[in-house]
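Section 3.1: Structural characterization of target chains.
Under the original work plan, the team committed to producing a structural model for every single-chain target entering the pipeline before any wet-lab resources were allocated. The record below documents one such target. The sequence was received from the expression subgroup and is listed exactly as submitted; it comprises 213 residues.
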Amino acid sequence: MAKKKQKYYVVWQGVHPGIYHSWTDCQLQIKGYPDAKYKSFYSLKEAQEAFEENYATHIGGVKQNVQKSSKPSVPRSQIIWESISVDAACSGSPGIMEYRGVWTKDTTPIFHQGPFRWATNNVGEFLALVHALAWVKQQDLNQLVIYSDSRTAMAWLRNKKIKTTLKRTSSNEDVFKLLERAHKWIQQNTWTNPVLKWETASWGEIPADFGRK
């Protein structure tokens, strides 16, 4: 018998909004809750990114109707190996988060930050991108490509606007201070480095991946 594929359940509106790893746990958050908003995803990264976004984007919206199989594969020959790859890992949402940057070609570490006690994956992905941009600017590597597998973090960077739903508490004051520094940096600096999407579906996990799927 084929093993049932793991699902992750995002609860935007419920008793305790968050990401749940079983339908039973999800039901406890939505049963009897008026106008509950929830949806399942087949990867933790998709669930983490969806939780940071408005539920309308995923429930009855464009993203729900797009068929992944219709997207053409991207050959690995298009990977620019002389580049930096960044990624984050988060246990829970919010939860313990860390992020890092590595050389794409051989995964040699460049920087690593964390763990932070109370953050989200998208926050980590964004901080990793800004950290990489600040690092290449300091090293005068102004054309070096930077890869990220997070569309959300890339959008925050592109729009120079952080749209996290993470609440500021005494447990994550250090994270918010980093976010403030990162936001200030992108407001005061320019860069010419291409920031490109790592095509996970075609290329596998990004080299900076923490391997905790």
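Helices lie at 23-30, 44-52, 62-65, 121-138, 151-159, 173-188, 200-203.
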